[in-house]
Amino acid sequence: MHAHAPIRMLSRWARYASLLATACLLPFSVAGAQSSSPTVLDSVVAVVNNQAILQSDLNNEMRLSILEPRFNIAGPETPQSALQRLISRTLIEQQIENEDVQATIPDPAEIQQRIRELRRQSPACVQANCVTQAGWDKFLKDHDLTEAEVETYMKRRIEILRFIERRFRQGIQIPEKDIETYYHDNLVPQYTNRQDVPPLDQVSKRIQEILLQQQVSQLFSGWLENLRKQGEIEVLDPRLETAGLTPDGSVGGP
Amino acid sequence: MRVNPARRPCIQFERDALPFAVVVLFLWMSATAAFGQIHEKVRSQNHLDAEMRLAATQQQTATPLPLGRRRARRNPLPPTETTQTVPSPYSSWEGKTVRAISIEGVAENWLKPLPGDLPQKTGAPLSRDHVTSSLRVLFATGLFDTIEAEVRADGNEVDLIFHGTPRTFIGTVTVTGAKGATLNTQVDRAARLNPGTRFTQARLNNAIEQMKQAMADNGFHEPTITCKQTPHPSEQLVDLLFTVTNGPQARVGNVKVTGDSGMSVSDFKRHAHLHAGKKVDHDTTSRALSGVLKYYQKHDRLEAEIKQEAADYIPATDRTNFQFSANRGPRVQLRVEGAKVSGDRLKRLVPVYEEGTVDDDLLNEGNRRLRDYFQRLGYFDVKVEHRRETPQANDVVIVFTVTLGTRRKVGTVKVEGNHYFDASTLEQLLSVHAADVIDRHGAYSQALVSSDVDSLRAVYQNNGFSAIKIRPEISTGDSGGKGTAGKTSKKSAPLNVTYHIDEGPQQHVGQLTIDGNEHIPFEQLQQLMNTATGQLFSPQSLAGDRDAILTYYLSKGFDQAQVTVDQQAEKVNPNQVDVMIHVVEGPQIFVRKVLVTGLHYTRPDTVARAITLHPGDPLSQSALQQMQRNLYDFSLFNEVDTAVENPTGNETNKTVLVQMQEARRWTLTYGLGFEVQTGSPQNSSTPNGSTGISPRVLLDITRNNLFGREQSASAQGTYGLLEQRIRLLFQNPHFHGNRNFGLTISAGYANSRDVTTYVSSKLEGGMRWTENFNTPGSFLSKANTFVYEANFRRVKVAQDSLQVGPNALDILSTAVRVAGPAFTWIHDTRDSALDAHRGSYWSFQEFFSTSKLGAEAEFSRLDMSYSSFYSFNKGRFVLARNTRYGQERAYGSPFNELIPLPERLYAGGSTSLRGFSINAAGPRDVFTGFPIGGAGALVNNLELRLPPPMLPFFGQQLSFVLFHDMGNVFANAGDIWKSALRFHQPDRDACKDLTPPDLNGQWNSTGQKGSCSFNYFSHALGLGLRYHTPVGPIRLDFSYNLNPPIYPVTYERSTPLATPYVGSASHFNFFFSLGQTF
Fold it and tell me: What total of structural domains would you count in chain A?
């Protein structure tokens, strides 16, 4: 057993204990709420260019984070990281409104298509066997989600992605030379057997797409960073303030 | 193809690319700002599907992983956790009936019409969506720093409480203590603490840092800045008072220069004005850079580069050490090939010297200016190019190659095919024009032709001809040949330019609709519009209508209003265009309160009338600006700022902050002036005066804001050779705050010699009541002013100065009291009072001196003038004319009939009849020949003000005027019209009669009658120069009187006259003065 195992066990017990305590206290707190002392329902936890983000928004974001493609990949989901993601999204949505971009609203079929992909590919969904209806229903129930919430989430996501595509992808040109360079410098060295290397013609479109994504990523990253710098962002709850978090909420650092 | 799974590349090329959106979805939703690392990630985690499959296959299957296996092993993905669902606080409360809603933290009246308009209603079940929406609505008012929703149970009902912390906004910001002319203002601006905006401690800290930086820029690196906060909780405002202590001012320390500066450090310091020990101020760096750059420019180093690398302050010595990098660059010269252009002209045409740098934009501008220059000379096909040559290191030559082409003139310019407009109307729009006397070649270029086509098209389109077609045709006559490139052809054919117009059908407005106007009815909006059903369809008018509607909405407090216009030709009748105007009104903002600050000496009731915004009024920028203008009109304030509290908040009622900074109450004004002219009266013993300079000193001490009101008291003094005057004034420009009425009370003493005949003194007092018509809807326009006066004065002529016959000495030098009312009407529509180009100026004045008010001389005086100004040739030429008519009539007892000398009508001088020296026109004393004024005057001035030519040294600052003045002063007003067509002085022989007049001769109201008549119109031609300055032109006029009068001189007071002689007014006069003649 690892040297730190007792500590880990202790930590686990402590977590169970706290959960138990929460579970025990919850009825009392609700009962207490029924008395004359006021109960806080909701509050403003952050402000993005005079637009409020509520505690309930943050709770929703935490619930929906299970649908994120990289859920738990970049690190455990925390309220701080969820808030940072919310702030970024709010900034982008404000830009969409300011630039008066007539973002195409996805049709229901497209939303359903994306949800099917999510059920098939999302790590959390794969684990829960969401491909089957029963698995999907259980997944939603386990995470306190509804079909409608997932559809709204997906619709919003597609709209934003279309905006990003429209805003950044147009006008980017990938020279042939860059494709060749990528092919020779990045792809070919990964094959030990030279004969297995696919010809450039066969993969050039795919490389072009990758390089395109890289440029879009760079442009988008800089743009979002500028929005954050120029915008007025205020986190009102000190417990939600973060250090070392990237704007998307993932843990930064080298 | 078989691939070793372990060596398979990270990219799955076998798969079709996912839709781009999915890829970006992955990129954004999972790692939005970590895109800098994306390149690496693309290699290993190229696509969402790959990463997802990785996560899935780790636990589900052992099938070979073609992608990302190695990475998966390095960084095993944590097992997907089931998110712990935290019970929503709403779950226990949703559905319960809301008994009451209260809002805490901000005064209830500030939130109106909330809380009634909140999505969560009293009596309705509590809903999570409604509560969150309500929270957002309340926060969006901008009145809360934080806010939360609380519930309190009461049986099956709940009370909903929105509890917030009120937000604080900046009230007044005052900076004081900093020593330096504008330092307090600079520091204030650096703080960027705009009144009305949100106040936070972070902003304050940042502002203090910025203020310190501003002080450092001025050489004060160790200032102390303290801030006193005075909160006004009821208004959610805080006033900020910053007190600044300068500390020591840095002085210039060491100066270090890097790069190829081409000069020693000491020379650099000299040119940069960086002398050791000199105080560092705000301009030190810019002065240093411009000084050195100027040196380089003077030596043709137009590509020199200089910048400040560092300015390090050393606290121990209070010195700032500067470091500059300077590279002088090559010597730049300009040369022209293919045509002759003088060096000076080339420097003026190519703006590299003007700008002190060389770049492609400036050189291209040089091309364009050279092309324009040669086109003005008739080389319409000229081409100009430039190239850069480097004959040797450190030398650059910019060569302009000019290909002149054929020299032509524009023969004819005409329009054809026009029916709706006549040709002369259209030809006025054209920039291309035929050769004429002034422009020997005319004007033509492709650019001008294109511009003409655009102008013609615009005028047709704005009159409903949307399908207008215009085809320019350029032809040359048969005679003449073509020139050779680079050489001038003397026999080139003239160009004939014809614009062929195909007007097409004329469209009219069909149906006009406005939608979205919920608060302002259609009829009201329609009144703002020029576009109407059945009218010509004009895009220009429509754009104007759109702006008018938008402006109207903004003025009514709809600050987010949007107005768009659609137009569509009717299918049945395409010549009818339906116009649809779409209005999105947005919220209407009203004034909650107007907070006025900054009144220390001024009474609040003084400014009350200027505060035109009141609680409940719609809030608009135009109303704020109007209020600001009203307050500036008082001339009591140096600065008037208006701001809106909480400008970004969504509250519909807002507090307006009006902050004023009072001007100094004491002002001292002084000045110097002079006139130079022929016939100046001072020190002259001859009837025509002598050429001389007349200097004067002016001094004015004024106490403004007298008794806290918009009124002032002044003491004014003038001391000059022509006049010495002292005057006390009380002025109230807006009587009791009324912008239409002003009151002036004056008293003073003046001693003047503006006529060669005498020195007069006046002790006077008067009251002047001015009426303007500033109120909209007045029966007269703003151009009109009425002045009602009551004048009392005692006029006296110094007997020892009086140059008249011995029999008139006593009577004309007796002090006389003049008293009576006067009425003046002024109608002024000039575009500029100093240098008018269009409009007119009309003044009418009637004055009665009556014994009923104690006058000893009874007479009435009518003096009126009318000037008008016409500009033509696109405003380049101005034709200006002025006519003055005056008449006086004595009445009452015979004793009072003689009009005192200073009260008579005079003409002559720089602003009157320029054929005479100052006040020298008209009747003269029958003995001495000195001018004695008259009882009638008519003067007509006609001026052609020419456009300024380009001249060496003067540029376009100097222009010329051709003028003709005519008229005279007459002993009786009745003589004026009889003399109008009389060019020569009548009966000149009688004027040559040197027999001394009878001392008991006949008298009229202006003195003893003589045999020499002055009843004719004198004419003068002249040339004037005008040097234009920001305060009006400096004027030099030369005139030649075509028919000056002669007069007999049989007596002189100063020395016994040996021989009587016939005097004559001078043919030639000149005048040097300020301002236009009229």
Answer: 1
